[in-house]
Amino acid sequence: MRIPLRDTAAVAAGALAPFATALVLMPLRTSVTHTNLALLLVVVVVAVSAFGNRFAGALAALSAAAWFDFFHTEPYQSFHIRDRADIETAVLLLVVGLIVSQLAVRGRTMRRVAVMDAMHLERLHGTTRLARSGTSSSDDVVRRVREELIEALELRGCRFEYGALIGRPPRLDPDGTVRVDGWIWDLERQGWPDGEIELRAIAHGRYQGRFLLTPEPGSVPPPLEARLVAADLAAQAAAALDDDAVSAGPRS
Q: Any transmembrane segments, and where (predicted)?
């Protein structure tokens, strides 16, 4: 599975940004206290953590402590430290950097989750309003669900297929799992399976059709919450189709 570009850039920043900062601060090492220099490096760790992930933040903390030792403690250009106070500062820089990096990543994760939850809720409410408006057909609801699935699952494409089931493509189930030939597929480790993935539209126990999902090649699968929302959206489309079938007869 391909590593996202953002994560790659964050790891690179975690390794290089503290080194570059410690190098730039070298002219100040005799005029600024070591504690203040360490605090400046902590700021770099926070910035990397806010941009990247936990691994990048931890790497930045380790890098900051190492280059603080190398450039700003005697003997210079050595990883040996003579002064006890410098040892304490380096250790505190590492510990504080690790703690702050994890807090920064956690805060960014919580903000992202809150934003995604609000977006998923609006998708469900928007589709429900359309289905209950009385002015939209079931085809309109299906079209809306297709668009929402592309956004929610970050797909390259999505189409809806009426009628009987043909073939046995990988299937996204209502519980958010993906099955391939009857076995649960490990999305986190293996990524999306190859080819189209079906998401069945079923309401009141009656099959109405299926959405065929086409992920972006090499893309990271969405979290479980997004997959559960996708299943709920498919159920709304199925309910709209079922209402039409009850009132106007089965689709030919």
A: 6-25, 37-67, 87-105
